[in-house]
Amino acid sequence: MTFSTYTIILTYFMASLGIAAASLVETIEVYFIAVASALAVISLILNLKSIRVVSKTVWNLVAVALFALFIADYAAITGNLLASAARFLVIMLALKLFDLNTGRDHVVTYVIVFFQILGAAVSTSSPVFLLILSLFIAGGIGAMTIFNIKKDWQAVYKEPSVPPAAIFGASIITFAAIAALSSVIIAFLIFFLMPRKAIGFFERKTANTIRMSGFSGKVDLGEIGGVKTDPTIVMRVEIKGARPKELLRFRGSSFEHYDGRSWRRRLKERTLSGKAVESRFIIEKTMTGTPILEQSILLEPLESDVLFAASQPIWIEGKFQQLRADESGSIYMPSIPYARTGYKAWSQTSTAKSQEGAPNAAFSDTSFFEADPSRDRMRALAAELTKGMKGRQKAASIESYLRANLNYSLDPQRTEGKSALEDFLFFSKQGFCEHYATAMAVLLRSASIPSRLVTGFIEGEWNDFGNYFIVRQANAHAWVEAYIVEEGGWITFDPTPDAGFAPIEMPSRLTLYLDMLRYKWNRNVVQFSSEDQRMMAFGLERAFREALRALAKSLSFQKKGPAAYSPYLLAALATALLSAIFIFLLVYGRRFTQGQDRTGSKPIKYYADMQGILRKKGFTRRPEETALEFASRVKKRRVTEITKVFQDERYGCIQPEADRLKEVEQWLEELGRL
Amino acid sequence: MSLRPAISVPLPWLAMIIGRTFGNRKQRTAGKKRIFKLPRTLSITKEGWWYIAALFAIGVVAINTGNNLLYLVVATLLSVIIISGVVSEHTLRRIKITRQLPSRLFKNSPASVRFEISNNKSIVPSFSFTSRELPVASTSAEPVYVLKLKPLENAIKYASYTFTQRGALALAGVKLSTRFPFGLFVKGREETIITEVIVYPDVTDSNKTAAVLAQEAVGMESGRKVGNGAHLRGVREYTARDDARFIYWKAAGRTSRLFVKEFEQERAKRFTVVFDNFKTTAPHEFEALVDRAASVARILIEKGHHVGFKSLGDAIKPAAGHKQLYRILHALALIYPVDKKGPAGVRVESIA
Questions:
Q1: For residue A481, what are the β-bridge partners?
Q2: Which of A196, A236, A495, B154 could pair covalently with B118 via S-S, beta carbons 3.0-4.6 A apart?
Q3: pLDDT > 90: percent of chain A
Q4: In chain A, count of helices (H) and strands (E)?
Q5: What is the mean predicted confidence (pLDDT) over A7-31?
Q6: Are A494 and A482 in contact (CB under 8 A)?
Q7: Residues A273-299: pLDDT tens digits?
Q8: Which residues of chain A does B64 touch, with a Cβ-Cβ cutoff of 8 Å?
Q9: Reported ipTM exceeds the 0.90 cut
Q10: Do the strands A407-408 and A461-463 form a parallel or antiparallel pair, or are they unpaired?
Q11: CA-based torsion, A514, A518, A524, A525: positive or negative
Q12: Of A145, A147, A187, which has the smallest distance from its Cβ to B72's Cβ?
């Protein structure tokens, strides 16, 4: 293969990366990528046969026309700079592949690919990006190296002479691979160390948000049913420490006004303040002695401004300029973010949500009964279920009644009842979480216990690779909070039977692993923030301090028993020291052992080779024999000559000429053949 | 016990340290004006500037958007610069270069200089680097380019050097430089190989003045006696006394009479090239005279004559052969104008 064939292969490798990067841009259609790939293949065939169909002038004219089209596309059609730029670059790339004449054309191709990768960087959050970037670095390093060598070569030997294709050999490939690997490692080091600002000025928004049910100001009864089969991932919740034993409910919104058809929330919201630590928002006062669950939550771009956290969030940390909360403890962002949102939440999970003073009258409101024809049946049912009971017992009784006597179904039948609730309680007796929760809230209120409907998500699949829950749309859930006077706060009740918690499908181990990669990439790279940087610095400092302490402890003379003695640490230290010495000797050893540099220790090597060959033929140098004596015993002219070259170098420090060494090589071959 | 050894022992050391410190300083100020010298030189290529500009542009976008993947791209671009630095360092490190000049150098005629370049690294190959002679006045040297040197490999390269002035000259060394690996930066390292050379004057006699001078000199001494030399003197009729070997058979064929060829007597003549090295009004005139004297000496010696040399301060006895020529050329290479009034010029004196 010639030099140009190699460069063409390299360029097509880069072009395929460019097309792959373009496919990551969210607004690029599949057929567009398919057409570009087909064009690339056709051009590859033409290029390998050295057929040029597009002349320089034509390409330049077309490029200008395309640029005009791109401006028109952006200004008049899409209005989306990224989409039109991505499309423009793909067409440019496909066309450029038909015009690969000079080295400059190849370089232009690489530049186009680089811009495509930039486009992908702005648009995507897929971990495939890392793969493309790494391959681009490897290819780019290879290309820059080759073209630089070509340029140097042509500076000496003038065009059109090109360097021998042999430079594409193993050493350049090894070099490019090692350089690319080190580049990725160094890049990540720099990436994590580079100073960040807390908030970017022009953060990019996405239009591809996930539609949500149950978190707007008004929720119709039966609304959540539509998403209960949707496997779209809504969020991932990483848990610090072990997986909690009890079922986690990630609380979103709560609703207090019911009108027989839908729930509404009208509670007054307050702006959260009191940042003890930067970007920390306090929601509740901490109760001492209760376990606190730390969660790191990554929300997908949702069509909602609700923030989720397990049961009772106490404080939230995140890149928010402001947060709002209502008195029920629901937390809202200032607006829908139209982007992935990462934050941390600390929650109490096991106690009642405290309430100062009497609860808002809205939680006890039963005005909807006025219009409801089945109010008397409901009141009767509530009275029957709570007969002779007090506070919490009443609620538990209603909860267990609903759980035991009604059927879970995602597709409840409408029968003769006048409302969905009446159908659920008295006729079809079929429904899902929202029906159960509404029924319980209504029954509680008719038994004069303040109550509210809470919407959110239950925990999804547990991914033990990354210690997090994958929460999907299908995990959307509704439950009830009731104010129990004797407990002095709000208690969570969930009347939905176990059928409502069955997972839709268990993902395979591979899927879980890939999801972990995707999550880690998003959490640690795409969402990396100044906050994470601070935490990383603290973590490093702590680790360093602990290591020092452990070291001091293990080296301390005042050891208290065998436990204070750490043989592992000493062993690790010794290993580190030994390997450092070994590496030092490997790199600099020559200088010390040989006094001076013996570049051409080749003769010595050749002499050893010769001895090896002769040994096979039955001549072994005796210990008492000098090199020349040995040679005279062998009685071969070549042997004597090689010995002389060896002796000159070994004892006279006379380095043989390159030609002479070549001769020695030939003689060795001759000897081998004898 | 005397205190003498205790005091005297450090004294030589002290003297040496002081001598080294001050001696070096003196040398440094006398030689190059550079006080602080870095072990490597670095300059940014055109491509490098573009690269840095792109890096800054993307960096600004990354900061303004807070997009982490753009930060990652910036980090990658930075890491490539770091790798470039490490790799170019390894390309130049432990490259040993020796330069061998031809034993005789002449002004204005290109000399082929032999370089032996060896890679003393045991693992890492070196790619694409150039060795250039450190600039010395009146010397133009071709660079030497090495595409690849495997670990522990050495290569022989030749480069053409041209000196435009005669005299003693010191070549300071070479500068190894490379744009490897990415062509963003040029890294250089100076390797000191001091070689003193004597450049002889131009002996090519481009305007033929020396040839005329030599011709005149030889013509003065026209003892054209018959002998058994190499030059034909004439043709005459054969006599019985003549040797049959010199019969001119071609003429015999045409005229059917016998002729013999007569040759000139071959006798080395003795000359002295006299150079009145008075100062001339323009330096180049003096140089032209030096070249003329050298050329005359060369022409005469090549004709087999005994040639001597005489200037205002120097004299070489006549002798034949190339050794004598180089003796004269050496004297001419180092000659300088005498600052006295007198007609500068070159003439050839014949010695009986």
A1: A452, A492
A2: B154
A3: 9
A4: 18, 22
A5: 88
A6: no
A7: 655 566 678 777 656 667 788 999 988
A8: 200-202
A9: no
A10: unpaired
A11: positive
A12: A187
